[in-house]
């Protein structure tokens, strides 16, 4: 399989005079938590070697999604292209780029994807496309990026994320009656803070959300007089743990046939969730002993083999300065890292006083005409279906001290 793809890419992409340096197959988790297999390939210009532990100029990197059966990434590193006869599109125009994407992926423009924006990067033209379904955006998003030079030669291509066309078996549920939009608007206008070079700006804005999405949360309570329980914190470096995890997911062609799920695709068991919540509760009881009932756990998920959890104040205003992120190894039963927003902020800026002059009601009145709802299809990870919904958003903000409108 590797030899087949290497030969095909060398022939189709003008790499006959390059040295194949590395190939590997890795097991990965897709954005909707399905297991996929990726073939990575790397070529150096003929006779070139590593320079100071870095790839030489002109290195070519390519990636094939073996589950889909086509190329998902092709990168001319630093855009230094040493190919003698690279393939050329008829032009660098949108129509020819779209035709190439359709031929390479089987996806169809205005059905599976559409142009998001077009940029210029020196002599190169960059195209950014996003996934759609029945004309709506999709969450999680699918993204395609193509960079083509003035000759029509592709020097960067990447396809990532969710495209319904690759998963035709996913059910799309019926449209449901919408919630009360006015009440939803009121709920989603929130106060937040933006660190600046000379201080901290308080703004009202819309917290982007899907009207049917109700995030799971768990409010933490503890007894201040309780017996302190040992909190096991690993001395391992998170980056090293991640690197070891990535290496553990490199497999052979033979191992692909075993269909072993990627660890991040495994559901989080009730016991794992309860264990993590208990660890977080013990940690906060030790570091914020007088704040029982003021914190809640959100967004527990697996990433890179670890459990990740966001812990935020129940009071939304307090989230301006306070938040925790926990990384937990459920197999070793140890915390790997705790990120404390207040601690991090205090090292960067002088902690501000929350001095709000504008009420939430006043901010909502100023923002209301600019708040909009956008149709979406949202993937339900529990039911494994797509749900038609609406996402609230706004590109305007209100300064919470002056009442001035601020553009995004």
Give structural notes.
Helices cover 20% and strands 38% of the residues. The mean pLDDT is 91. The chain is α+β, with helices and mostly antiparallel strands and 408 residues long. Strands 1, 2, 3, 4, 5, 6, 7, 8, 9, 10, 13, 15, 20 and 21 form a 14-stranded mixed beta sheet that branches. It has a five-stranded antiparallel beta sheet with strand order 14-16-17-18-19. The protein contains eight helices and 23 strands. A hairpin with a 4-residue loop joins strand 18 (324-329) and strand 19. The chain folds into two domains: 2-166, no CATH class; 173-408, no CATH class. The chain has helices spanning 2-12, 94-105, 181-188, 238-248, 253-256, 270-287, 341-348, 360-367, and strands spanning 18-29, 35-45, 60-65, 70-76, 113-121, 124-133, 136-139, 142-148, 154-161, 171-172, 189-196, 199-206, 209-210, 217-220, 250-251, 295-303, 306-313, 324-329, 334-340, 372-380, 385-393, 396-399, 405-407.
């Amino acid at each position: 399989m590797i030899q087949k793809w290497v030969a095909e890419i060398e022939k189709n992409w003008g790499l006959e005079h390059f040295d194949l340096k590395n190939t590997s197959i890795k097991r990965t988790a897709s954005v909707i938590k399905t297991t996929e297999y990726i073939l990575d390939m790397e070529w150096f210009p003929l006779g070139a070697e590593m320079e100071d532990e870095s790839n030489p100029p002109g290195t070519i990197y390519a990636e094939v999604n073996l589950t889909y059966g086509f190329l998902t990434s092709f990168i001319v590193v630093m855009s230094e292209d040493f190919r003698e006869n690279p393939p050329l599109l008829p032009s660098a125009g949108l129509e020819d780029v779209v035709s190439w994407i359709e031929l390479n992926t089987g996806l169809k423009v205005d059905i599976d994807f559409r142009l998001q924006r077009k940029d210029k990067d020196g002599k190169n033209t960059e195209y950014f496309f996003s996934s759609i379904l029945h004309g709506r955006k999709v969450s999680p998003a699918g993204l395609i990026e193509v960079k083509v030079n003035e000759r029509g030669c592709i020097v960067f291509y990447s396809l990532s994320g969710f495209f319904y066309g690759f998963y035709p078996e996913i059910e799309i549920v019926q449209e449901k009656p919408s919630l009360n939009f006015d009440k939803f608007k009121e709920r989603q206008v929130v106060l937040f803070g933006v660190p600046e070079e000379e201080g901290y700006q308080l703004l009202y804005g819309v917290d982007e959300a899907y009207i049917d999405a109700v995030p799971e949360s768990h409010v933490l309570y503890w007894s201040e007089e309780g017996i302190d329980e040992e909190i096991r914190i690993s001395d391992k470096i998170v980056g090293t743990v991640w690197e070891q995890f990535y290496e553990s997911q490199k497999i052979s062609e033979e191992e692909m046939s075993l269909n072993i799920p990627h660890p991040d695709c495994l559901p989080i068991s009730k016991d794992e969730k309860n264990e993590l919540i208990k660890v977080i509760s013990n940690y906060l009881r030790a570091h914020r002993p007088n704040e029982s009932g003021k914190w809640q756990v959100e967004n527990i998920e697996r990433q890179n083999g670890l459990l990740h959890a966001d812990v935020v104040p129940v009071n939304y205003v307090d989230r301006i300065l306070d938040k925790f992120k926990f990384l937990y190894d459920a197999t070793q039963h140890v915390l790997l890292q705790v990120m404390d927003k207040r601690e991090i902020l205090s090292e960067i800026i002088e902690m501000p006083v929350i001095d709000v002059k504008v009420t939430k009601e006043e901010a909502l009145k100023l923002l209301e005409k600019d708040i909009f709802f956008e149709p979406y299809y949202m993937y339900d990870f529990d039911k494994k279906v797509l749900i038609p919904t609406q996402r609230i958003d706004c590109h305007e903000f209100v300064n919470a001290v002056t009442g001035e409108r601020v553009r995004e």
